[in-house]
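Purpose: get a first structural picture of the assembly so the mutagenesis plan has something to point at.
Setup: two entries, given in the order below. No constraints added.
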Amino acid sequence: MKRILIGKRTPGGRLAARRTLQALLLAAMLIALSPFSAQGKVYIDITAPQAKMMPIAIYDFQGQGGKEISDVIRDDLIFTGLFMYIDKASYIEAASQPFNPSNWTPLGIEAVVKGTVSGDKKLTASVSLYDPFESKEILTKQYQSDKDLLRQLGHTIANDIYTALTGAPGIFRTRIVFVGERGGERDLYLMDWDGHRSRKLGLRAGVLLTPHWSADGSKLVYAAERGRQWNVYLLDFLQMSEKRVFTSRGVNMAGDFFPNGKAFAFSSSKDGTPDLYTFSLENNTARRLTSTHGIEVSPAVSPDGSRIAFVSDRGGTPQVYIMLSDGTEIRRLTFEGSYNTSPSWSPTGDRVVFASRRGGGKNQICIVKPDGSDLMQLTDQGNNEDPSFSPDGRYISFMSDRDRQKGIYLMRANGESQKRVTPRDLKAFGPRWSPQ
Amino acid sequence: MRRFCFFLVLIVFISFGCKQRAVTQPESQPPAQKEAGKGPETVTEKKGGAGESITSKEMDGKTEGKEGMFADVHFDFDKYDIKDADKPTLKNIASWMTKNGSAKLMVEGHCDERGTNEYNLALGDRRAKAVKDYLVSLAVPSAKIETISYGEEKPLCKEQTEECWAKNRRGHFVVLGKAGK
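Result (structure tokens, whole complex):
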């Protein structure tokens, strides 16, 4: 903006005029491109590598269930690592008093959340988000829900607060599917992303493998061993039904869906050794992508569907490779270590996360750019496997046995804030984060 | 020319005037994202989130067969080639299969827990098939031998020791059908 003002004062000579014009155009372009121009202020730039944590105050909402709702919001926002939660003990303002910026600016608190809940069976929640430094209400909104959907209500509000402050969608209503085993019985489990409301889906099998979501979240594809046979199944959440879509001799293991949900990649040893195939759900046919004498498993389809990352032992040890989705242009991605498996893509396709056997013979979660650069190890306790990204790419879910029993853990995509989200009495592995 | 440039500057300035005002005067930013007029957002459960469950039509089928007639064969870590030490066992199985023409054999491939699930299932598949291939080379008809991989999913020994892992890296035999009863 300064450029414009200076330019206006110094229009002397042709050269100066041209410079002024250039400066003006540059300034105009900057304004047009700026995230500030279109949708109000972005308080937290989540694309910054080390964003400053925003001090936020969150009141217990007044009314029935109010505290539970604000606890959900608080936990959601804290987990992002973008907020510094300020304890209620330091709030000067009573919840019932109107928002007054001067109660907050001396404490350096940059956002204040207040809310009320009314109703008995049907709840109505009113929420306000304030910016003390600009003395204004950033968000005010009403919500309705059944009384038994308190957590979902809290997550929905947390999503709106997150979006108002970052300009990006929140992931707080997403879920994680995984394989669980209790008392020798295996089943697929579905839970909220934070580990709450976990439950069995009712799909018993001898062995179940990591399920994979369709991009619209309406389907899962997974492999199961039933009666000494490996089959691939499709679970349809809209019809709440399971269908066997592929079977053959040998081992069949489902990989990712393609983005349109009409085909998936999988590994099958139906023609001898485990090779990669695509399966079309439109005409129920399998098409072969690779043919080697070795092992080829775990196909991970890139978010745009153009590439597939997979595991092959063609070089003597299991390593991650990337090829085009038609099976051509195969190149090796991992070179460090002798056992790199379980690849999965970030939602923008800018990273591949995988499990790598490191010092001490344990598997650790690593990420790397698809060109093989910027390899980073994210875990170092116990065995860590089955990594996959959250739909916004900011978090990674994985299996770890660091507390002896295998369980589902979450962490930020930089390895920070690792925590277990499944109970200790449940053996859990193969987590997959749902799309939005 | 100079005058022309002046005009141009002026025109450009005016045409971007609106944007400029929006930025230089932060107090005139758009108001809070009021959702007035829309009414409250209704929060509902996502599909598959509530108590609904899907009962698969195929439950884990009962598997029949006789185990323990033949000793397991073993493999080195991340390997699927048959060890010399196990060849007598396999020759013994081959001659039994030849004598019992109606018998069918299931070869299970297993792995230790150190690998990752899917790669281990593939490795178990290679192990079971390596055993099958060896038996076929000893004149057992291919059609008489089935293979399945269980990867690391059904360990024999559950401790985290090399001794235990060595036991788990195995080919296991189940005799199917009449001869197995």
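The mean pLDDT of chain B is 79.
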